[in-house]
């Protein structure tokens, strides 16, 4: 079975930083582009960042450009997202998403809470 497990979330003060991790099992991570999405309370799920299969191309939503950095370590089957200068607007459940390069299979993680509050 395929599993995407997020970790590294929690409570952080405004201006602080967190690093999220997503570890995949049951798939070969190098065959998947990886993304992060988030869903703030009461709002729709939105795309945050994407990284290509080998990590050579990254894309970010305008709301996080310059603050968030997505990276991956295919040897560890893990994708990361470093989040800096966090504000209350970043409070959300963050989801890891895997998309096979042949666009046959896609998978979602279970989500992890990030709360930015004093």
Q: Which SSEs are present, and which pair or pack?
A:
Layout: E1 3-7, E2 10-12, E3 18-25, E4 32-39, E5 46-51, E6 58-60, E7 68-73, E8 78-83, E9 92-100, E10 106-108, E11 112-116
Parallel strand pairs: 2-11
Antiparallel strand pairs: 1-3, 3-8, 4-5, 4-9, 5-6, 7-8, 9-10, 9-11
Question: Could you characterize the architecture of this molecule?
Answer:
- This protein is mainly beta.
- The protein has strands spanning 3-7, 10-12, 18-25, 32-39, 46-51, 58-60, 68-73, 78-83, 92-100, 106-108, 112-116.
* Individual helix count: 0
Counted beta strands: 11
Mean pLDDT: 96
Q: Termini separation (Å)?
A: 39 Å
What is the makeup of the main sheet?
7 strands, mixed
Shape: globular
> Which percent bin holds the helix content?
under 10%
The low-confidence runs, each spanning 5 or more residues with pLDDT under 50, are none
Strand % is over 45%
Radius of gyration using CA atoms only: 14 Å
Q: Can you summarize this structure?
A:
With 118 residues, the chain is an all-beta fold. The chain contains no helices and eleven strands.
Features:
118 residues; mainly beta; four-stranded antiparallel β-sheet; 11 strands
């Amino acid at each position: 079975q395929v599993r995407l497990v997020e970790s590294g979330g929690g409570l952080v003060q405004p201006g602080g930083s967190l690093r999220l991790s997503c570890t995949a099992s049951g798939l070969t991570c190098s065959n998947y582009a990886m993304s992060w999405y988030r869903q703030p309370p009461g709002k729709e799920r939105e795309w945050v960042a994407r990284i290509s299969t080998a990590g050579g191309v990254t894309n970010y939503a305008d709301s996080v450009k310059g603050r968030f950095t997505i990276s991956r370590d295919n040897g560890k089957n893990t994708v990361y997202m470093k989040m800096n200068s966090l504000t209350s607007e970043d409070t959300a459940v963050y989801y890891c998403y895997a998309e096979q390069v042949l666009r046959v299979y896609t998978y979602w993680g279970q989500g992890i809470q990030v709360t930015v509050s004093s």
